[in-house]
Amino acid sequence: MDQALTPPGVAVAVRDLRLALPHGGDRPNAVDGVSFDLLAGEILCLVGESGSGKSMCAHALMGLLPKAVTVAGGSIRLGQTDLLAQDAAGWRDTRGRRIAMVFQEPMTALNPLMRIGDQMAEMFEAHGLLTPRERRARAVALAREVGLPDPEGIVRAYPHQLSGGQRQRAMIAMALALEPAILVADEPTTALDVTTQAQILKLIRDLQRRRNMAVLFITHDFGVVTDIADRVLVLRQGRVVEEGPAAAVLGAPREAYTQALLAAVPAMNPPARPAPDGPKTIEVAGLSKTYVTGGGWWRAPRTVAAARDVSFALRRGETLGLVGESGSGKSSVARLVMRLIEPDLGTVRLGDTDLTRLNGEGLRQARSRIQMVFQDPFASLNPRRTVGQIITDGPVAHGVSRFDAMERAVRLLALVGLDARALERFPHEFSGGQRQRIGIARALALEPEVLVADEAVSALDVSVQAQVLTLLEDLKARFGLSMLFITHDLRVAAQICDRIAVMRRGEIVELKTAAELFANPEHPYTRDLLAAVPGRARDAA
Amino acid sequence: MAGFIAQRLAKGVLVLAAIVVLNFFLIRLAPGDPAVVMAGEAGATDEIFVAQLRTKFALDQSLPGQLAAYLGSIATLDLGYSVRQQMPVATLIGERLPATLLLTGCAFLISIALGVLLGALAARRAGSLADTAITGLALLFYATPLFWVSLMAIILFSVRLEWLPSFGFETVGAGYTGLARAADIAQHLVLPALTLGLFFMAVYVRMTRASMLEVSRLDFVKTARAKGLTEGVIQRRHILRNALLPVVTLAGLQAGTLVGGAVLTETVFAWPGIGRLMYDALLQRDYNLLLGVFVVSSAMVLIFNLVTDVVYRAVDPRIEVAR
Amino acid sequence: MFKTILTGVALTLAFAGTAPAQTPGGVANVVIQPEPPGLMLGLVQNAPAQTVAGNIYEGLLRYDFALKPLPGLAERWSVSEDGRTYTFNLAANATWHDGKPFTAEDVIFSVEFLRQTHPRARGNLAKVTGVTAPDAHTVVFTLSEPFGPFLGIFEVGSLPMVPKHIYAGTDYKTNPANNTPIGTGPYMFKEWKKGSYIRLVKNPNYHVAGKPYLDEVYWHVIPDAAARAVAFETGKVDILPGGSVENFDIPRLSQAKGVCSTKKGWEYFAPISWLWLNNRKGPTANKAFRQAVSYALDRDFAKDVIWNGLGKPAIGPIASSTRFFNPKLAKYSYDPAKAKALLKESGYKGETVRLLPMPYGETWQRWAEAVKQNLEDVGIKTELVSTDVAGWNQKTSDWDYDLAFTYVFQYGDPALGVARNYVSSQIVKGSPFNNVEGYANPAVDAGFAEGAATVDVAKRQAAYDAVQTTLIEDAPLAWLLELEFPTLTRCKVHDLITTSIGVNDGFRDAWIER
Amino acid sequence: MSRAIAMTDSPPAAPPAPARRRSPLAAILRHPGAVLGLVILAGAIGAALLAPVLYPASPWRMVQRPFIPPFTLDRVPLGTDALGRDIAAGLMHGAGVSLLVGLVSTLAALLIGVPLGALAGYLGGRVDDALMRFTELFQTVPSFALAIVLVAILQPSLGSMILAIALVSWPPVTRLVRGEVLSLRSREYVQAAVVTGQTTFTILRREVLPNTLSPIVVLASLMVATAILLESSLSFLGLGDPNRMSWGFMVGAGRTVIRQAWWITAFPGLAILLTVLALNLIGEGLNDALNPRLSRER
């Protein structure tokens, strides 16, 4: 990347910013003495894991801190003004006109009851600019500028009628409306699919160039940083760890923490793996499921194919990755395999048992052979049961005595790296990574042959993610498990899968070994996916 | 939308039919029958008289036969005949329905308008003295027995202060017409509509407040703030509008309670509505009339539910997709 | 004999003739409670219907406070020597509200009509074998045997005249005219807003010259007792017929400025309250137990506290205000000790008895609570069984009770209103007004028969004295109070209560001072 | 944000972070309104328990002359009613009856509503459809009117009143439970219980219902309040149990003399008001404590 940074004026100067958390938090300050300059015409990335305070910094710039968080010191200077010292009217004037912001969740950041155009027009209205007629015209122009299709039509649409990427474009259009000098983007692509993410990143880059804006870009993803940052600021626990030009920080990090973080990012090149040659443990054939929604006496129903003629087999000791974007049907396939939802067609054979034929008690008994690790470490553990109960409920339901089950639970906890004292505790007392370990212990307690991991590491920070992946790999080898690994993250898939199936709209479009898929993608969709993975520049380096 | 309404109406008819059958048997479980009541009132009876009355009320026919006959007439939108009152049930209800609609309608508007207004105020100043005062006041109105408030209001405003009439729908025999009559009715309406409305207001205050607090945490409110909108616009346009959705749902569910609650108010204020008609019909075992009132008031609830659903759909553009 | 309460500065209504002269015109606002089911008196006989429609319809006779006949539609009447032929000369100028003349044919038709629809008239007319019309304005009733109280059955509620030209040849019950009643009375039906009010207007062609005085009468339907009192206090209504407000409100209302009250106008009905005691089964089948109940009742407390001093303790089957009452008979006083002794004698073993209150408002409810305490004080375990009007009627007429409150009208003569509650021929299921207690005593049956079939007053008195003595000893039921229902009016309303049925035909003579 | 903070993983063997979840009781006690509510309710319960001790005689006994105003005679501190019964004795004995009606009818409503809602929500499909139609039926008929009819049919007594109140107040429970179960059913820990082979009954009992408990508890506290109000309304219409002294009965009985003797209705009316108020305050406190998402901003 050509770093022709002429040192122009500083757009925003943050000095010694300290943001205090309410009492009882895990630390007194969310942000503790952070200072940086955001220069006009550059994209500065704030990088860090969750809890690093990066998002707080962004919100502080907009004066949108949560009520519980208070400014304990420091200054944010924008031109002549210290933003932190201004009153409510001053903030209103600053927001939107001088600094604009794009949020993480495009699905919830727009008012569901207002038309897109009206929400854009509000930007002008808030600052008393233009006539209502002109505002509408500008809204259309903005929609066109951010590349929304059919701008005239889309300004009359409601948010729910737009896709996630379109909504984020609308958000960006809104932020650009008053041509602010500074754009704060808080994880703007995190909730998007990888191909959409690539487009939005490109849009932000283009707009920033065209308008010569200063962009403060918040992200946890080093891939994204690689693709977009001019300069990087690494945060940890509310403090700046390292700061510098993107190339320098990513290429030759000075601090151990930065090095560790970068090392934890999975690489795009799959390691060499021996081809599994065990017997087939699970065989899926012609699995189909169609969802029918809506439809009344006078309206045609809408149908969505969650799975279309999906077939694959899994050998003992093998990990098969199911990758795809949201809505591709990968999670539905996982649930179909688990019989959490009923297939319309097709069979799932577990050894010599046809799972799809079983019902009632027979199904309940067979369930112990195939277990699942869920995505959300917070939603997958019953908050009202102790860890011990959570792990032993399964074995007890299958006739193991509570005592034996407990003994097994202690062993499993040790195996996943937790203390036996955890048995008496409740889930809320654990961190996300620890909870995911408990979830794994629960699945293993039934001594299954097959483990289905549904986005099992997606909600975790990159360092924790690396640990859990290693653990899964270990356990698989130790117990000779087969694993069906569902993920949207191709980097993760590359690291853990023997073979990978790419899904789109309920279909498997390509299925081959990981090494071959990355080296030699055949299907155009697979190629698009691979091309869109952020940070490939760094992998290549 | 038309399809949706037609579908709902069809479903409503089924619900009504079920209500008719259920209540038909229910009220016949009560001791006594209309003949017995009328005989008792006459001050003297003999077997001939009671037998005549039984024939008159068609009580000498079999129960399924009576039900079939009733359902048959209902199907042709005929609510039957009140032998006791010597009038078609539809006429009797038709005379009373406007009064009830006026009362419950006004009470509903008062409750929801005040409730939303106060709830929004309380939410905006959550935790403040104003919030405590509003929620406390609402709770007080909710906790005080409706009839007790009504009696107290009559004593204060009608007897002591002589500001408002204490009973009835209008000044009988005054011969008002046009605007003068409307003003007269409005005067009579104030106390019953207020006491009933304030009782139900509490529910909306609570709901609006909770809903607004919930919505104000949502992301799009932050977006609105990031635009530099004033707090007033954010509250009205972004928070309140979204917060009203559950309030609309609740309003639909409250309809049945509101119509029921009118029985007490109508009794205390001598308001000639169908709530009282129902109570009198019950005491007199005037089966056709009682069933008729149930059918009509249930139909009112169904229609009201439908209206709230239509309103909901009109307010929330997402419904069309999500069904 | 007839006391009139003087309240405020007002003169009694009965002697209002000495007050300023009658001024025609004005509107009367009256409370009616509950709303009557209909106003066609021939078909509907409940109390509020009689109160309103008694001013629309007329009977042949009216009765003064001493129950002496007064001219109604009949101007003159005579009885044959043998007491079996009664001749009535009708008012020649009487017309129906639709303008058709009222004739003897209407009387004959009315008798036929009421025999089909009016159970009390059916009983009263049992001995009538023929009704003839020698000319258009003369009617002759022929009886199979003498009937002492015959001249007392022509009151408007008991034998209302109905128009032949409207009902002849039609199905009476479904005749559309039932909703727009047509009588000969001083007021014509004008409008009925169900649940709100009934409006009567002056009959300009009324057969008594110069009457009525008022232009309109509004009957207001106000379901809540407290609201009725408020309506009177705030001047929305001027007349509270007896029984339309709770007793607790009467002292306050009648002491208000410009309010007059009278207890008159109930002599014909002479309501008397008692407890039905089920003579068939349970502890109440035992005479000693029944006497114990009577001794346990504190009637003075009921009168003073529950009825606010209105009424007087009833000591026997015949009310003190009606004919053939004998004040010298023994009476039950409040004597818990005696009650306990009798209870012991009866062999009562503490069974719970069910007491059915009268579902006619709070006064009756309070009374039931007080009686329950009276009974429990002497050791009778009592449970109140709450029910509504329909349930009460059903339970009493099906004899499904142990003790039950009631009150019954006497209709001026033991033969009309008393005998039905004690003679064994009246033990028939299905009516709450006959011999509900199931008492059967041939001597009593004979005594009542003799009293009815005799014309000579002294002989009748003797027969009824014997009956009363027996009944008081046997205590088939427990008499409570002779009830009084004062009528409250503004004092500017004059001459409202001029007959023994009070408001029921009172608006014929009433006028309002202006 | 709080969720994100907790997600930083600490090394495996590190002691777990201290429990930050406050116990619900402690949370309620931080709510001044709820504390007030608890105090009032405790008073009402205390009155109910002490009634047989302080006023061993029946509250129906006529102990003095009628219409003694309050605070004039020491023996009847709150005066007497129209029959000379002690208002204070009535209040104390009435507390038990009113609370009993509120409590038992609410329990009965829960007994109907929770299973129906749980089945409808968990099983879905036709069962759900049928159950919800049935619920709709009860929500369409005006509830108070239905209660009146039910009491009239069964004839007024404590039992019939409780039954009638329960029968008209279960539908909201069903709707609530169904909604909760519906959202819990797709929760991952419930699916985890399914895949570990637990039975439907066990899952409902262990995983689903306990997590619907807090909204149910909140709703129930409000239902008790509503039931007490309903009881008083029915009594007002003369549909109360004439053998039980309840507050509603006292108000209903006193209303005809309200102009002469305000205290006869005022004291029981106040008792109803306070108790209903207390239950609502407790309900709000519970809601804040068990459902912190909606709690007041501090």
TrEMBL record, chain A:
Supply one GO CC term from the record: plasma membrane
How is this protein situated with respect to the membrane?
Peripheral membrane protein
InterPro entries assigned to the protein according to its UniProt record, in alphabetical order: AAA+_ATPase (IPR003593), ABC_Ni/Peptide_Import (IPR050388), ABC_transporter-like_ATP-bd (IPR003439), ABC_transporter-like_CS (IPR017871), Oligopep_ABC_C (IPR013563), P-loop_NTPase (IPR027417)
Q: Which gene codes for it?
A: gsiA_4
According to UniProt, the name of this protein is Glutathione import ATP-binding protein GsiA
The family this protein is said to belong to: Belongs to the ABC transporter superfamily.
Q: Which residues form the ABC transporter domain?
A: 12-262, 282-530
Source organism's superkingdom? Bacteria
What enzyme category does the UniProt record give?
A: hydrolase
Taxonomic classification = Bacteria, Pseudomonadati, Pseudomonadota, Alphaproteobacteria, Hyphomicrobiales
From TrEMBL, chain B:
Q: Where in the cell is it found?
A: Cell membrane
The protein, known as: Dipeptide transport system permease protein DppB
Task: Give the chief site where it resides.
Answer: membrane
- List residues of the ABC transmembrane type-1 domain: 97-312
| GO biological processes | transmembrane transport
What family does the Swiss-Prot or TrEMBL record give for this protein? Answer: Belongs to the binding-protein-dependent transport system permease family.
Please give the GO cellular component terms listed in this UniProt entry. Answer: plasma membrane
In the UniProt record, the gene name given for this protein reads dppB_6
Cross-referenced Pfam families: BPD_transp_1 (PF00528), BPD_transp_1_N (PF19300)
UniProtKB/TrEMBL annotation, chain C:
What GO terms in the biological process aspect are recorded for it?
peptide transport
Q: Tell where it localizes.
A: Periplasm
Ranges for domain Solute-binding protein family come to: 69-425
Which CDD domains does the entry link to?
PBP2_NikA_DppA_OppA_like_13
Q: Which SUPFAM superfamilies match?
A: Periplasmic binding protein-like II
Write out the similarity annotation.
Belongs to the bacterial solute-binding protein 5 family.
- What protein name does the entry list? Putative D,D-dipeptide-binding periplasmic protein DdpA
Organism the protein comes from: Methylobacterium symbioticum
Automatic annotation (TrEMBL), chain D:
Q: Topology versus the membrane, per the UniProt entry?
A: Multi-pass membrane protein
Tell me one GO biological process term. Answer: transmembrane transport
Chief location bin: membrane
Q: Where in the cell is it found?
A: Cell membrane
The record's listing under Gene3D superfamilies reads:
MetI-like
Instruction: Provide the alphabetized UniProt keywords.
Output: Cell membrane, Membrane, Peptide transport, Protein transport, Transmembrane, Transmembrane helix, Transport
Q: Does the keyword Ion transport apply?
A: no
Q: Where are its TM segments located? A: 34-55, 99-123, 144-170, 216-240, 261-282
Q: Write down any Gene Ontology CC term.
A: plasma membrane
Asked if the record carries the keyword Cell wall biogenesis/degradation, the reply is no
Query: In this protein, which residues make up the domain named ABC transmembrane type-1?
Result: 95-283
Q: Name one Pfam family in it.
A: BPD_transp_1
PANTHER family of this UniProt entry? D,D-DIPEPTIDE TRANSPORT SYSTEM PERMEASE PROTEIN DDPC-RELATED, OLIGOPEPTIDE TRANSPORT SYSTEM PERMEASE PROTEIN APPC
- Return the similarity comment: Belongs to the binding-protein-dependent transport system permease family.
Name the chain's protein: Dipeptide transport system permease protein DppC
Classification from the root reads: Bacteria, Pseudomonadati, Pseudomonadota, Alphaproteobacteria, Hyphomicrobiales
Encoding gene (name)? dppC_4
